[in-house]
Amino acid sequence: MSEPNRADFALISVLDTAPDTYVKLCGVESVTINRSAQTNETYSRDCAAPNRPGRRKLRVTGSSWSISASGADNIDIEEDYTDAFGVRKTYKIDLFRDDGTDGGELMGTYTGSAIMTARNQGYTDTPGTTELTLEGEGLLTWTVAP
């Protein structure tokens, strides 16, 4: 039997002001990567059967990506969240497999430029939570772990 090679968890980091220094958004563990292709459509009738409805033809006009994530709010990195909100930053999303070690096995990393367009914090009967939306710009690149 063949099974998919899938990640068990993901961690998001944001590029800090220091070159090549990333701050882990520790606590944010539920990550969803969304990709969309924008299209426009036309309909053309078949000249041999003009009384039949036209058939749709799609043309891809662009593509986009976004990330939604949630987890525990982390007051220790509040300044990093504030610095990133509404600002174009480089993010990386590391995908890991649970291999029984403390760190897990890194499978690969998505990297891209995005703007944090939403940050929702909740403080109710449970400890603080956060929800993030990152709207990507340009390519979201994948690099397989060595």
Structural descriptors:
146 residues, mainly beta, seven-stranded antiparallel sheet, 7 strands, 5% helix, 61% strand
Task: Give the arrangement of secondary structure elements.
Blueprint: E1 9-15, E2 22-24, E3 28-44, E4 55-72, H1 78-84, E5 88-97, E6 105-122, E7 129-144
Antiparallel strand pairs: 1-2, 1-5, 3-4, 4-7, 5-6, 6-7
Q: Can you put this structure into words, describing what you see?
A:
This protein has a 7-stranded antiparallel sheet, with no helix packed on it. The mean pLDDT is 94. The relative contact order is 0.24. The chain contains 1 helix and 7 strands, in the order ββββαβββ. The chain is 5% helix and 61% strand. It is mainly β. The chain has one domain (9-36, 64-144). A hairpin with a 6-residue loop joins strand 6 and strand 7.
CA distance, first residue to last residue? 26 Å
How many extended strands? 7
Shape: elongated
Radius of gyration equals: 21 Å
Q: In total, how many domains does the architecture comprise? A: 1
Low-confidence stretches: none
The averaged pLDDT comes out at 94
Q: What structural class is derived from the secondary structure elements?
A: mainly beta
Q: Please count the helical segments.
A: 1
Work out the strand percent: over 45%
The H/E string reads EEEEHEEE
| Strands side by side in the biggest sheet | 2-1-5-6-7-4-3
Largest sheet: 7 strands, antiparallel
Instruction: Give the proportion of residues in helices.
Output: under 10%
